[in-house]
Amino acid sequence: MNYFELTCKVFIKKNIAFQASFELLSKYISFSMYQEGIGEVHQKEGFKYYVFGGLLPIEKEKVYKQGNLYSFTIRSLDETLIDTLKTTLRQNINNENLLVVEAHKKTISQFFITELYSATPVIVSVGNGKYWTMQESGDIIQLQKQLHENAEKKYQSFFGESLHVKENCIQMIKILNEKPQNIVIHKDGKAIRFFGNKVSLIINEDEVSQKLAFVALACGLSEKNSYGAGFMLGRGMK
């Protein structure tokens, strides 16, 4: 199993607040998909099979500065999607906020993962428009169950095959933030906040757990990955 990754260099055309940056990147990627007729990937219900991380480096003032270059990463299990974006991201020249000036592709083969930790908030819905936080739920077992189930569904949906799951792929979860983190988007003029957490996960060693951890790394852990949520970093042996 492989995933495919684009490391993108971005020129900032006007100052961008950190909190606004995820929505702007999401829209930039979505628009770039439409240029080659693959916009339905972003619009369709269900899994999108891609995720992106935030702009780096993060400025102390939490504002990305006009005229500077930053970088961000897009990952996917879908090589065709990554190959298309490699071209169309750089063709999206009329965006008023930013411009991707370079996009370099890498192929990463499955490796043994001992730990995953989140670079962006991990969003988990718990019903009634609410999200898992220590304040809303605090039920770690529920969080562990939903994270596993989400990764398993993504695997089955993308590869079209079931896994013989014997145990949860996550051995241990640690919540890394004291207060919930959030990603903000706007629809019909209203701000919508997706609340989540920064987490670290110890991954079980069995074959199924390793596949699910790799899928979480490849296309994001849990929900709202096309808005930049659940972008994970992995530790292990390559």
TrEMBL record:
One of its GO terms (biological process) is defense response to virus. GO terms for molecular function: hydrolase activity, acting on ester bonds; RNA binding. Coiled coil: none annotated. Keywords: Antiviral defense, RNA-binding. InterPro entries: Cas_Cas6_C, CRISPR-assoc_prot_Cas6. It holds the Pfam family Cas_Cas6_C. Residues 119-232 form the CRISPR associated protein Cas6 C-terminal domain. It comes from the Bacteria. Belongs to the CRISPR-associated protein Cas6/Cse3/CasE family. NCBIfam families: cas_cas6 (TIGR01877). This is CRISPR-associated endoribonuclease Cas6. It comes from Sulfurospirillum multivorans (strain DM 12446 / JCM 15788 / NBRC 109480). The lineage of its organism: Bacteria, Pseudomonadati, Campylobacterota, Epsilonproteobacteria, Campylobacterales.
